[in-house]
Amino acid sequence: MRINAYIALATGLSRRQADNLIQQRRVSVGPQLAVLGTQVPPDTQVYLDGKILKLPSSRTVILLNKPVGFVVSRKGQGSKTIYDLLPPDFKELKPVGRLDKESSGLIMLTNDGKLANSLAHPSMAKQKVYQITLDKPLTPSIKSKINQGVRLDDGLSHLKIDSLSPDLRSMSVRMSEGRNRQIRRTFASLGYEVIRLHRVQFGKFNLNNLKDGQWLKLKLK
User: Fold this and answer.
1) Distance of CA 183 to CAs 98, 110, 146, 197, Å?
2) Which ranges of the chain would DSSP assign to H, the alpha helix?
3) Annotated active-site residue in 84, 100, 135, 212
4) CA distance 140 to 103
5) Is 84 an active-site residue?
6) Buried b (16+ CB within 10 A) or exposed e, 160-176
């Protein structure tokens, strides 16, 4: 197995991130510093910053319905974290994608680096679906602007609005990007506040009937 694939499986990082660690001379295969393309022989220990990396014994994928008020991090810095909702056996799983503290809904966690990268990397353009509520009705002209694309400081924001409620305040939003607080910033740039943001789909994975704080371990082939 190539060293970057080994690191990805052991840590949940992408292969590109693994390559960066190797180039920073932070990875060893046995007693030797690893280089790009190094093969890891069977029964050989791999070290990152002097600590042994262990491959997962089996692939684990968890779907979690994150409640509002929980942060997607191991270090809450005074806040509750998603790991407070999970059994101790799942503490080493890596989250795929982020939701801010005030948002809720689907979070995936896994020890499968390849799966995590296929879902989270921008080049994969996985569709995500959110149910949102605004502080005031959405006008037709603003809806049209959002569907056409809104210029933010970090580039054009592409959102698609579906299923607008009769009061014009609640709707379904689709996106294939995932920049920091993108939905909230897009609406804020047009004079709206998102008062509820709830993710219901990430790629082929759906929240379905999971209630706040509940999780489900998937059986994947």
Assistant:
1) 13, 25, 10, 9
2) 3-11, 15-23, 113-120, 140-148, 182-188
3) 100
4) 25
5) no
6) ebeeeeeeebbbbbebe
Structural domains of the chain sorted by starting position, each given as residue range(s) with its CATH number in brackets: 3-53 (3.10.290.10), 61-121+207-217 (3.30.70.580), 127-202 (3.30.70.1560)
Rounded to two decimals, the pTM is 0.76
Percent of the chain topping pLDDT 70: 95
In tens, the pLDDT along 48-63 reads 999 999 887 678 899 9
What is the Cα–Cα distance from 66 to 141, expressed in whole angstroms? 33
- Average pLDDT over every residue of 200-218: 92
Residues facing residue 202 across a β-bridge: 128, 205
Which tens digit of pLDDT belongs to each residue from 23-38? 999 999 999 999 999 9
* Closest to 178 in 3D by CA, of 126, 134, 132: 126
Res. 125 pLDDT band, cuts 50 70 90: low
Query: Strands, DSSP E only, in the chain?
Result: 27-29, 32-33, 46-48, 51-53, 61-66, 70-71, 80-81, 94-96, 104-110, 128-134, 150-152, 155-157, 160-162, 170-175, 194-202, 205-206, 215-217
